[in-house]
Amino acid sequence: MIQFENVSKSYHVRKFHKQVFADLSFAIRQGESIGICGANGAGKSTLMRMIAGIELPTTGTVSRSMTTSWPIGYGSCFQSSLTGADNARFIARIYNQDERHVIDYVEEFAQLGPYLHQAVQTYSAGMNARLAFGISLAIDFQCYLVDEITGAGDERFRIRCEEELLHRRDNATLIMVSHDPGTLRQYCRRGAVVYGGALVFYDTIEEANDVHHRLQTLAA
Length: 220
Prior knowledge:
Elements: E1 2-13, E2 16-28, E3 33-38, H1 44-52, E4 59-64, E5 72-73, H2 84-94, H3 99-110, H4 125-138, E6 143-147, H5 155-171, E7 173-177, H6 181-187, E8 190-195, E9 198-202, H7 205-219
Parallel strand pairs: 3-7, 3-8, 5-6, 6-7
Antiparallel strand pairs: 1-2, 1-4, 8-9
């Protein structure tokens, strides 16, 4: 389970102050698939980083009783001067995984060819995302965090991503951020909407999508 208790998050940079979240309390249980909706800048990626433990709350506590991936998306999580293979090897060591297994899986899944052995700083955004997706899926996490990833690569890669994500949804916890309602409907059963510093959960992803659409229409 992942549990937030009275979590607030704000940023202070010189005279700039932004309150992203205020007093969030909720629990995500093992086996759930949750799609998170929200406008640009509402705090979706900040929320995902706090769920992953990459970013700490300003106040309150976040506790986890299941292993959680980093947010898989277009933002780089790698040491750019190292090769894709070296990054995979390093991450395998962190999670006490077999290095050869992880690299073999990434090589077959991400379809980077010779670029797997080139510095990540030479990668396009899509290649970076495919590497992140491959490494994350090579490790058996109990909770997978996905942040706008499913469009990376050609049709064959997208189909493989869909198959692997559906398998994770059915066998682990899946938390997904996407601006595409169809993508959220495909992978998620429950939904949540980020708006005005709050996070509101709904029993179905359809209801969450509808609420988000109405909020966007009112703000237009």
